[in-house]
Amino acid sequence: MRVKEKTLQRFLLIFSFLFTLHITVGAVKIYPIPTGLKPSVAYKVFINKQEVFVYDSPVPAAYCSFDMSNGVEIVIKVTRDVKWVDVRPLAAGVTPVFKDSTIRIYLKKPMQLSIELNGSINMPLFIFANPFEKNIPSRNDPNVLFFEAGNMYHPGIITLKDNQTLYVEGGAFVTAVIESYHAKNIRICGRGGLD
Fold this sequence. Notes:
The chain is mainly beta. 12% of the residues lie in helices and 43% in strands. A hairpin with a 3-residue loop joins strand 4 and strand 5 (61-68).
């Protein structure tokens, strides 16, 4: 009986270690989709099988953004056949695997990349794989202008004064003019979109 109990205890200990490891390894934070924004028609992106919103840019480009702590698999589906893929910067050493209209890459750590198709810089996909955020300002701080995830904002002109922080949470999108006159200690931060 004691041998069975010890074996069961060891199994539970190993299982609990592996379960904890599974939660920690490859942890990803996908931002909510801002209401009212249409996704890119050129790209779909999946991080560890979770779909990430892909923004269109007027520049002719597309981009997506997410947070990661460890290795992730990125699957990119495009609306055209892929004959060649360049992942820049080349110094990052990210090697794509592609077939037809699907590209797979693996990232070991956070980095910013440009995915360029078929030897052209026309309509690249920019991937912003960020480390998890630290020191997020409090939405209750009166000196913080906090734009919450999942929404689009059109506040017009935002005037920042001394000691103010403008924070755009990942999954928020703000279209505005930001101005400041002789102000000190101002900060603009966050993982959301600012146009």
